[in-house]
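Re: that backbone. Tokens:
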């Protein structure tokens, strides 16, 4: 078995790699170690070395739901690429690696008349992130289209196919633990009209252009919607649109988005998140629950 220093020498693992550029916030500190793995063999090598050296493993996808603290992330951060990004369309299903980009998944299926995955065109993450978060939009969630996901348990080293019911997918939630790695997923599709599918994807994209802040650094919705309400509506109702700390501010376009300027630090964004949560609890009596995953902060969640 190779050690982490062996894998560093071999170029598979890199020490002290900036994570900011790998997230949509574009800010954040370093990974103690980082590996981009293209094959299952590479992944297994990295995981074995990490286990051998008692290093924590953190998976990242496209970093579209992530805020990384300035102090960075200890252990090894792993990103799935190469063969993990492949998408294969069959007659009633689409098989995708966990590193596949959701908009690519949507377009690849739609282009050949496999319908049902169009909504993913609006979610800028990966299949792995979508399974973990039960990502969704425009009335459809991952659990509605997922047949199964292949999940590797880092503790046992065993990979098992799990259905949406077994993953307990619910609104922006799964029962996956930090020691679970999504390797791939199979999605249900139906045969349908290519033009209809493409029209739907254009509608999804247009809606997002009209309703969400474009061209800014953010991670989409920061909080989950509380039952029967919308986090954005609540935040807006107490006048927090535009509320700013340092270089981070609540979007004036969509109050559940927090935007980071070029000068923003991750701690600015985090401070805005905490301030908004506190104000909503105090003034409306509703405890907002964070959707964005924060890495390297005091109360890492
Ligand atoms: C502009 C914008 C719009 C958005 N709109 C939506 C939306 O409409 N609906 C929605 O649901 N989300 C939305 N999001 C949030 C985000 O795109 C989703 O949560 C997405 O599923 C995250 O995927 P990711 O690959 O970027 O995950 P990351 O942000 O990289 O990681 C998120 C979490 O997933 C874990 N993870 C990633 N890959 C794996 C893996 N292979 N195995 C195990 N764990 C893994 C990470 O450890 C982390 O805990 C939006 C984000 C942006 C920036």
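Recovered sequence:
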């Amino acid at each position: 078995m190779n050690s982490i220093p062996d894998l560093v020498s071999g170029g598979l693992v890199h020490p002290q790699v900036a994570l900011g550029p790998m997230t949509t916030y574009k800010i954040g500190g370093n990974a103690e170690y980082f590996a981009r793995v293209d094959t299952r063999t590479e992944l297994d090598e990295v995981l074995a070395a990490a286990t051998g050296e008692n290093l924590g493993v953190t998976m990242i996808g496209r970093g579209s739901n992530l805020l990384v603290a300035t102090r960075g992330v200890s252990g090894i951060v792993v990103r799935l690429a190469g063969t993990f990004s492949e998408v294969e369309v069959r007659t009633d299903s689409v098989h995708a690696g966990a590193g596949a980009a959701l908009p690519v998944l949507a377009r690849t299926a739609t282009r050949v008349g496999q319908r049902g995955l169009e909504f993913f065109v609006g979610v800028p993450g990966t299949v792995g992130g979508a399974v973990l978060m039960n990502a969704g939009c425009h009335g459809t969630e991952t659990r509605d289209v997922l047949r199964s996901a292949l999940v590797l348990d880092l503790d046992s080293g065993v990979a098992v196919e799990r259905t949406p019911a077994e993953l307990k997918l619910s609104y922006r939630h799964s029962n996956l633990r930090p020691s679970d790695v999504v390797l791939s997923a199979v999605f249900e599709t139906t045969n349908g009209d290519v033009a209809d599918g493409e029209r739907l994807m254009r509608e999804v994209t247009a809606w997002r252009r009209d309703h969400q802040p474009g061209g800014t650094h953010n991670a989409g919705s920061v909080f989950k919607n509380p039952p029967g309400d919308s986090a954005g509506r609540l935040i807006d109702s107490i006048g927090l649109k535009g509320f700013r700390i340092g270089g981070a501010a609540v979007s004036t376009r969509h109050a559940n988005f927090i935007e980071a300027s070029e000068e923003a630090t991750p701690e600015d964004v985090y401070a805005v998140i905490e301030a908004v949560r506190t104000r909503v609890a105090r003034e409306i009596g509703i405890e907002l629950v964070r959707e964005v995953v924060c890495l390297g902060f005091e109360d890492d969640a």
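Residues 24, 58-66, 80, 98, 122-126, 128-130, 132-133, 135-137, 181-182, 218-220, 293 surround flavin-adenine dinucleotide (CB under 6 Å). The radius of gyration is 19 Å.
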